[in-house]
Design brief:
about 15% strand, four-stranded antiparallel sheet, 19 strands, about 35% helix, alpha/beta
């Protein structure tokens, strides 16, 4: 057997899994020279949540990151994670947008496209694979791994044959939640090697503690490539340590041939860089065997923690983890990977906070109606009926969902021209807008300010300087990443307080307060007001949708709690807290 090859995930999946995808490009570039010398099969460095997070939280252009990394890594292919017809967003896109995106990604530096679909529906691979073929880049089709009654070894072999047939150059087993058991990994790879001739790569998170053994057994069975990550960014919800796997195979027929001393130099760099992101770190640092039941993927765990904190409901995490497999079953056993992990996970959160299926997100309705493709198993018929009624559809979509989407690139380009005030927007800006139309406009305005900068934070706040008898004591308090000046003064003293230098003030959420003469409509969860569903002052019936809110990256309807004339208390674009009054009826 040829030596085992490794793909390192430090620049994408590792920080997505451990600290909510917050690593900035400036912390990646200084170590690229050494990463480029290792001899990896690839460096996974783009795609997944990095595109969204770069614009949403880091004020970085994801395309600029790709170009800079390509320049700094001339000898090592950059791998990106692409969600088939979803690309990097949370809906299906028209074929012309998929084609344009793949072309632009290849032009800007992607060398290997790892393409997957959350439902393992080959129809959702079709356009992305055809576009990637035209670029001449390596195409790796990924099977989203799950352990349900409908995800069987035989089904995986059938899928692998189909993916090889439609043009994949290699196959990945994408084990998002660390569910791949070592001996099952051996048997699965053995079965795949009998059925296909293309190389096999294994991607397994260490969340449940099984990944090191699973990779070793997969190599024994014939897998040619393994996903690992440099040790400071390994384990927990991340992946097996690169150095560990190199040493395990050293001196055997599977020897990687990689230089451990060089890897240790790289590890030392990331050990220091990691300190910049302490406030974002996931609490899941060991082996979490609850995931054997909930099947939540590593990258979602750290995000779910933050989302529950935002809702003031972190104490409900165990309840949510128990609810997830129930929702997964009701939704037809989709594997839990973006976007279905978010759809199922956020629906589970809403079920715990509000009652089971009191509210379905827009994405839950689309999944139930077949708009994401074919789920592996039959869905809960009552929920399907509820979704179809809400969407005004007579029956589930059973054909390729993208067939219903007309070409949309020119329309998106026209919107970006107007948004940017130019007749010649870049293809990349149009695609950024296509992926995240609610995030990109604000990013375009702030882009010239440059990326955020993260620095190590002290383990404990330093004591403030003592104030004189009649003097105010001044503190800087960090709340959700923003520094606030807090002044504590003797009673009766008039003082002012504000946001510390360099931090943005909290957005104004309320446009008004309830008059007390009507019925208040509260926000069911914390989030951002997207738009009004009815006109200000219009008459609504109880149960009618009045506001659309984005919460935890999903869209949710806020419904009238009574009938009457509606008065909105918040403006579109405002951030609101859970249970905050957003409208008054009466």
């Amino acid at each position: 057997m040829a030596n085992i090859k490794l793909t390192d995930l430090a620049l994408r999946d590792a920080h997505q899994s451990l600290f909510a995808t917050r690593m900035v490009t400036a912390d990646m570039l200084p170590i690229c020279d050494k990463l480029d010398k290792v001899g990896y099969f690839a460096l996974e460095a783009w795609g997944g949540a990095t595109f969204d997070t770069a614009m949403r939280f880091l004020n970085e252009d994801p395309w600029d990151r790709l170009r800079k990394l390509k320049s700094a890594l001339p000898n090592t292919p950059i791998m990106m994670l692409l969600r088939g017809q979803n690309l990097l967003g949370y809906r299906h896109y028209a074929d012309d947008v998929v084609t344009k995106f793949v072309e632009a990604a290849a032009k800007n530096g992607v060398g290997i496209f790892r393409i997957f679909d959350a439902l393992n529906d080959p129809r959702n691979f079709k356009t992305a694979i055809e576009a990637a073929k035209k670029t001449g880049k390596h195409i790796q089709a990924a099977i989203s791994y799950a352990t349900t009654p409908f995800h069987t070894r035989e089904k995986y072999v059938e899928l692998a044959k189909e993916y090889e047939k439609i043009g994949a150059n290699s196959l990945a087993i994408k084990d998002m939640a660390g569910l791949l058991k070592p001996y099952e990994a051996y048997e699965l790879v053995k079965a795949l090697k009998k059925a296909i001739s293309i190389p096999i790569e294994i991607h397994s998170h260490s969340t449940t503690g099984m990944s090191v053994a699973a990779l070793a057994k997969a190599a024994e069975a014939g897998a040619e490539i393994l996903d690992t990550v440099i040790s400071p960014l390994a384990m927990g919800t991340s992946h097996s340590p690169t150095e560990t796997m190199v040493e395990i195979f050293k001196g055997t027929e599977y020897d990687t041939g990689l230089d451990t001393n060089l890897l240790l130099e790289i590890a030392a760099y990331f050990r220091e860089i990691k300190k910049n992101y302490k406030k974002f770190e996931s609490g899941f640092l060991g082996a979490d065997t609850r995931i054997l039941v909930s099947q939540v993927p590593g990258g979602m765990l750290s995000n779910m923690e933050g989302q529950l904190k935002e809702q003031g409901a972190l104490d409900k995490l165990d309840d949510v983890l128990k609810e997830i497999p129930l929702v997964q079953k009701d939704f037809g056993y989709p594997s839990l990977v973006t976007p279905t992990s978010q759809i199922v996970g956020i629906q589970a959160v809403l079920n715990v906070l509000q009652g089971r299926y009191v509210n379905l997100t827009a994405e839950s309705k689309d999944l139930l109606a077949g708009k994401y493709g074919a789920c592996p198993a039959p869905k809960n018929p009552a929920l399907v009926k509820k979704a179809l009624e809400a969407l005004k559809l007579e029956k589930e979509v059973t054909y390729r969902p993208a067939d219903d989407i007309p070409p949309e690139f020119e329309k998106l380009e026209a919107e970006v021209k107007k948004l940017l005030g130019t007749d010649t927007p870049s293809v990349e800006d149009v695609l950024s807008y296509a992926m995240f139309p609610k995030i990109a406009p604000d990013f375009f305005k702030k882009r010239s300010q440059g990326p955020v900068v993260f620095k190590p934070e002290p383990d404990a706040p330093s004591a403030p300087a003592p104030a004189g008898k009649n003097e105010a004591a001044k503190y800087v308090v960090n709340v959700n990443g923003a520094n606030y000046n807090v002044v504590v003064a003797p009673a009766g003293t008039v003082i002012t307080a504000g946001v510390a230098a360099g931090a943005a003030p909290a957005p104004e959420a309320a446009a008004g307060v309830p008059s007390g003469g009507g019925t208040v409509v509260p926000a069911p969860v914390a989030g951002t007001i997207i738009r009004y569903a009815v006109d200000e002052g219009g008459n609504v019936a109880a149960g009618e949708t009045v506001i659309i809110i984005e919460s935890m990256k999903m869209e949710l309807e806020i419904k009238a709690t009574a009938g009457g004339k509606v008065h909105f208390l918040v403006s579109a674009g405002a951030k609101v807290t859970a249970r905050q009054p957003v409208a008054e009826i009466g």
